[in-house]
Design a protein that fits this description.
Subcellular location: Endoplasmic reticulum membrane
Helix content: over 70%
Number of helices: 8
Protein name: Endoplasmic reticulum transmembrane protein
Number of strands: 0
Strand content: under 5%
Keywords: Coiled coil, Endoplasmic reticulum, ER-Golgi transport, Membrane, Protein transport, Transmembrane, Transmembrane helix, Transport
Function: May play a role in anterograde transport of membrane proteins from the endoplasmic reticulum to the Golgi.
Shape: rod-shaped
Radius of gyration: 64 Å
InterPro entries: BAP29/BAP31
Structural class: mainly alpha
């Protein structure tokens, strides 16, 4: 395992100079810090950067990023191993200028590589959190919009209900007025009915009195006719006295 790491390190050193690796590490670290700042700050570059990160995670470039991360991790482990190997030597060998420089170089490189890996993990998690935050924010905005729409609808319904209640109150007032007018008319009808019953009773009494008078008149006629028949036909004055034409009967 260590031999493979050493060979990989030799291959990397053969392709890049040590100072080139340090400069590249500083450049990548600063680029990662700028990406983190752009993700944290609400600027016009935030949404395009999120879109590009989503596109990067969905494409095959994610495998390349993972491969580079694995390579950086291997380099960091080799640097840590080199530091531990140098520290296991004697103090005199460490104080020598070449070993001291190599130790400082490995420490710097391991720190930079570890810092880059941490920043890479931070970018990944921050992208996920910001993406979830954006989704939650959009959901909250949609819910607030729906709530405002429901509130406007409820306000409109409340206004309509208020108008209906006012209309019901007006109709109740009209019904009460109509009931009062109907009660007054019913009382008037009852009074007229009582007057009609009284007039009917009076008329029946008058009709009875009229029938009685007719009977009395008929009896009186019969009595006068009988008296007139008993008188002598020769007595003209008395006959004229009991004449029906004289009395208008």
């Amino acid at each position: 395992m260590l031999s493979l790491i050493h060979r990989f390190r030799v291959l990397v050193n053969s392709q890049f100079d040590n100072y080139t690796i340090i400069h590249l590490s500083f450049t990548v670290s600063f680029a990662q810090i700028i990406i983190i700042l752009l993700l944290l700050l609400e600027t016009s570059f935030r949404n395009p950067l999120l879109f590009q990160l989503d596109k990067l995670k969905r494409s095959r470039a994610q495998l390349a990023v993972k491969s580079i991360g694995a390579t950086m991790f291997v380099v960091m482990m080799y640097d840590i191993y080199s530091v531990l190997e140098i520290r296991t030597r004697s103090i005199d060998s460490i104080n020598n200028s070449p070993n001291h420089v190599i130790l400082a170089f490995h420490l710097l490189e391991a720190s930079l590589v570890g810092f880059m890996l941490i920043l890479l993990v931070v970018i990944n998690r921050l992208h996920q959190y910001i993406k979830e935050f954006v989704m939650v924010t959009e959901t909250i905005r949609a819910a607030n919009k729906q709530y405002r729409a429901n509130e406007d609808c409820m306000k409109k319904i409340a206004d309509e209900a208020k108008i209906v209640r006012e209309e019901i109150s007006r109709l109740k007032l009209e019904i009460n007025n109509l009931e009062s007018a109907c009660s007054i008319k019913e009382q008037a009808v009852q009074l007229q009915r009582a007057d009609s019953d009284a007039l009917k009773n009076t008329l029946e009494g008058l009709l009875g009195e009229y029938d009685r008078l007719l009977t009395y008149n008929k009896d009186l006629k019969e009595q006068l006719q009988g008296v007139n028949e008993r008188l002598s036909p020769s007595d003209g004055k008395k006959s004229a006295f009991f004449s029906w034409d004289r009395w208008g009967l």
